[in-house]
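Please think about what follows:
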Amino acid sequence: MRRVAFLFDGFNLYHSLCIASRDLGGVGTLWLDLMGLSRSLLPLVGDGAQVGEVHYFSALAGHADKLRPGATGRHLSYL
């Protein structure tokens, strides 16, 4: 059995989802289920693969609160 670790770069993932949401006409894409996404990718690894670990790395962008009040709080909610 293969155990697979998934590492997500939060900054790039967040901005990619913002673009996807805009392109889809505002469909909510910002509350992504990372475990579900990881499971959906297992067939690419091969038969018998299982999710071993999921890690999400991100830095808080406190400066964003000046332009979008509450941005840091929403980010913390997601984390």
Observations:
- Strands lie at 3-9, 50-57.
- The helical segments are 10-23, 34-45, 71-78.
- The chain has a mean pLDDT of 86.
- The longest helix spans residues 10-23.
